[in-house]
Amino acid sequence: MTTEHKRIERIAKQEVPLVQWGPYLSERQWGTVREDYSRDGNAWEYFPFNHAHSRAYQWGEDGLAGISDAAQNLCFAIALWNGKDPILKERLFGLNNGEGNHGEDVKELYYYTDAIPSHFYMEYLYKYPQLQFPYEDLRQQNATRGKHEPEYEILDTGVFNNNRYFDVTVTYAKQSDKDIYVRINITNRYSEAAPITLLPTLWFSNQHPGNTRPTQPVITYRNASAVVATHPSLENYYLYFQQPDDVLFTNNVTNTEKVTGEPNKSIFVKDAFHDAVIKRKNVKGLRAVKKGTKCSPVYRLSIAAGETKTVYCRLSNTEVDKPFGQSFEDIFTVRKSEADEFYNAVLPQQQSEDLKQIQRQALAGLLWSKQYYNFDVAQWLNSSDGITEVNSNKLNGRNNDWLHLKNQDIISMPDKWEYPWYAAWDLAFQCIAFAKIDAAFAKHQLLLIMREWYMKPDGQLPAYEWNFSDVNPPVHAWAALQVYNIEKAQKGEGDIIFLKKIFQKLLINFTWWVNRKDRKGNNIFEGGFLGLDNIGVSTAVFPGTNMQLEQADATSWMGTYALNMMEIALEISMHDISFEDTAIKFFEHFVIIAESINEHLLWNEEDKFFYDVLSVYGSEPMPLQVKSIVGLMSLFAVAVIDRKALDKLKDFKKRIQHFEDSKTNHQYWLNEEQDGGDKLLLSLVRPDRLVYLLQRMLDEAEFLSDGGIRALSKYHQDNPYTITIDGIEHSITYDPGDSTSDMFGGNSNWRGPVWLPINYLFIQSIRRYSVFYGDDLLIEYPARSGNKVNLCVVADELAKRVISLFEKDKEGRRKMHGNYNWFYQQKGNENLLLFYEYFHGDNGVGLGASHQTGWTALIADLISEYYESRTMVRKEEVILV
To answer: Burial, 164: exposed, middle or buried (Cβ in 10 Å; 0-12, 13-18, 19+)?
Structure first.
């Protein structure tokens, strides 16, 4: 067992499996719903980037390469100044949703280069231009571009040409849980010397007006190289730093003069360091006060061409006379070797170094994207931020029916800049990636989202803060089973207590789906856009009108949900027979859904494909013949059961026998038996329809791209689908790259790109089919190639295509970097990776959120499974073995 594994085991035994200090600081708090107290609900406009350095937040903090304690009382991050910018570089810049031609988008170069689950070692690289940062150029150029043009990125501005920038690497290495060593390396990549100012900054979060404390926190000067931070909810913490050029103090309060025009009560405001460093304003006052809620030592450096200068800090709960002894640097070497040892133990060793690097950075990004999330909806609705008073529009507006929701936890975020708020179904995928390295945290996150202060009393899970009532696909039972099986494979036994806990909560959520999203009671489900953004032909065909959209995807998700619940109940039944009845209940529910999706109009016999059906009162139901992944999602619902293992479950076995004896009445629940009848296959699609769907999926003229399965068939490139509803014409066409539609936000796109979580689901499902069919079912891959292979090979080949998005080719280029490979082939940048939200359906270029290491971190799991599958079938593919 590695040193890090021992730490993880110790942390897992805690009531909450978290360490006190971690990368819990958001990378964007401005422009969020929590900070929006406006009358019109326009969060981006109410708290724009230009206010972020001057205006105190109410519900959280943000910073650059930062950390905080688990309750985000005390924060640490860096600030930089290149001598030319109008503001300090305290946080990452990006465009708001109205400024970008494809929606909001971070416009910086930063990378999560390493991390381990205990956060005893973390590395973060930020690339800072030496020329003035192109804030206005990025705004103006993107504003002039249309939906059919690519985004104007920071590498397009020219500020990184000729390597005229600094590499700023921030490394954290813990001596103990509460003793954190910090190394800040600044390297001049340019050919001439250049100045830079560094401000390692310690501050207390601003307290929301509703939180009153008798004792206020304060950071106090101790000597020229140390300050002490005192907080009523924390033990004392000391920030030690090497001899600086200055030490400045201020308070984390709003500069009202800049934000509202009201004169400030003192010079000690949130952005005081900006004026002090850039304009040399109020320096004596900020230096002389010796206390405040925000403090920075200041280092004014000149760095020669190619030179690296290092600044050390130490944040500790212990008073130390000599904080930077001779062994200080040694801790970084030791922790780095422990990180190497850990990843050598968890990643397959037969892989190339490039693939190992892809996995490690994917997991590092996932670890860096843990964030403190604080939101009390009732308090938010009924309080003021001191700028805008409580108003009726807000009280009756967004999320007003989620008054029970009170979140104050460390949560895995999809992306700490682009999506600095949890998303229910994203979280499920993130937990699967987490399970490989920290199963305790993965289980904690899945249980957390279902706690009573998250889940609505009626059983609905909160989607995301922009609208908690939106409906996300019900993937949490599937994720729980995946996490359970991953840990079981690691330890040799599964956590039945976890399965029981989450099963009870999932029962409530499943019931909500059945009661709320099946209006006709025919086991054909709705749900709206289901997180699939604008894949639908129209946003107008949802409940509340005279139309009803009966959805192939919602029904497939529910079939999958029922099957996963059956699998969980069966697994628990092997230890606790009282769950057998529930396994039967979900088995029968799955059979009913399977019959409905196959017998209903959702299946189009002429096209051999599943389509959504639009029912308009007084008219015949109308199939919406859009060839999208919606029609392929029925493949997700598949399970293989070992008959011999069912001998212990007599009632369940008897019920299965009943269905087998009446196959003519229940023709859709069970496919053919194989291997002498020792396995059962449960699937939403019977064998002939499975072949039809796979043929279409594996057709390069339709869904199959070089980088994986597209979200929309390329058929629609030359054949747009058009339909007229209530006199309004709606159409859908193939968009392989950024969205050309504004539906669901300008950065949304499911009309052609490759999405990693959906590809992951397809690959997992095909692997399960392969366990059952073996070589008895061969399929052409690619379609019409004449090359017939079994489904295990299909799954491997699909995985290879997805992996190729990240992997270097023979010229050292990566598909995802596209036109920016020139930058990533330069010395020192060859191993820098980004984990995009989605990928171009034709050329594999990364698009959307550039650092979305949430569900895209599944690439780490996909790579491991690909190499494992070449030698054996994973045991968890057959349940009850």
So the answer is: middle
Are the C-beta atoms of residues 570 and 649 closer than 8 Å to each other?
Answer: yes
| Tokens, residue 11 | 């942390």
Scanning 13-60, the segments in alpha helix (DSSP H) are 43-46, 49-52
CB contact at 8 A, 163 and 130: no
Alpha helices, H only, 272-376: 272-274, 283-288, 328-346, 353-368
Report the SS3 class of residue 149.
Answer: coil
The DSSP letter of residue 278 is I
Q: What is the pLDDT of residues 817-855, one digit of tens each?
A: 999 999 999 999 999 999 999 999 999 999 999 999 999
Give the distance from CA 474 to its chain's centroid. 16
In the block, residue with structure tokens 């104050």: 408
Q: Tokens 């594994």 label which residue?
A: 5
b/e per residue 339-374 (b: at least 16 CB within 10 A): beebbeebbeeebeebbbbbbbbbbbbbbbbbbbbb
Q: What is the mean pLDDT of residues 197-224?
A: 83
Q: Which amino acid is at 213?
A: R
Between CA 488 and CA 567 the distance in angstroms is 15
CA distances from 103 to 91, 97, 860 (A): 19, 4, 28
- 725 - beta bridge partners? 728
Percent helix, strand and coil across the chain, each rounded to 5? 35, 20, 40
Provide the β-strand partners of residue 220: 228, 291
- In the chain, how long is the greatest CA-to-CA distance? 89
Average pLDDT over residues 852-862: 95
Question: For 629, phi and psi rounded to 5 degrees?
Answer: -65, -15
Structure tokens at 572: 């628990």
Predicted pLDDT at 667: 55
Please tell me the distance from the alpha carbon of residue 862 to that of residue 868, in angstroms, as a whole number: 10
- 251 has which bridge partners? none
Phi, psi dihedral angles at 750 (to 5 degrees): -125, 25
State the DSSP string of 643-665.
GGGGGG-HHHHHHHHHHHHTTTT
Query: Do the Cβ atoms of 805 and 707 come closer than 8 Å?
Result: yes
Mean pLDDT lowest for which of 362-376, 637-651, 734-748?
734-748
Question: Two tokens at 480?
Answer: 């729980």
Q: How far apart, in Å, are the Cα atoms of 431 and each of 83, 506, 639, 762?
A: 42, 16, 21, 18
The DSSP bridge partners found for residue 144 are none
Task: Give the whole-angstrom CA distance, residue 387 versus residue 802.
Answer: 48
pTM: 0.95
Query: Taking each helix axis from N to C terminus, what angle separates 439-448 and 3-12, rounded to the nearest 10 degrees?
Result: 30
What is the arrangement of strands in the sheet containing 612-616, beginning at the earlier edge strand?
A: 547-550, 612-616, 622-624
Structure tokens at 856: 């895209």
pLDDT reported for residue 742: 65
| Amino acid, res. 724 | T
| Preceding amide of 782 cis, omega within 30 | yes
Question: What is the SS3 assignment for 696-749?
Answer: HHCCCCCCEECCEEECECHHHHCCCEEEEECCEEEEECCCCCCCCCCCCCCCCC
Measured torsion, CA atoms of residues 527, 528, 534, 540, in degrees rounded to the nearest 10: 160
According to DSSP, the residues that pair with 604 across neighbouring strands are 609
Partners of 680 in beta bridges: 641
CB 768 within 8 A of CB 638: yes
Answer left, alpha or beta for residue 123, where phi above 0 means left and psi between -120 and 50 means alpha: beta
The candidate with the shortest Cα–Cα distance to 408, out of 107, 675, 65, 73, is 73
Lookup result for tokens 């057959």:
878
pLDDT at 663 over 70: no
Q: Which residue has the tokens 């790109």?
A: 753
Among 71, 65, 85, 197, smallest CA distance to 134 is for 85
> Which secondary-structure segment (H or E) carries 338?
helix 328-346
Other Cβ atoms less than 10 A from the Cβ of 694: the count is 23
Query: Percentage of the chain with pLDDT > 90?
Result: 80
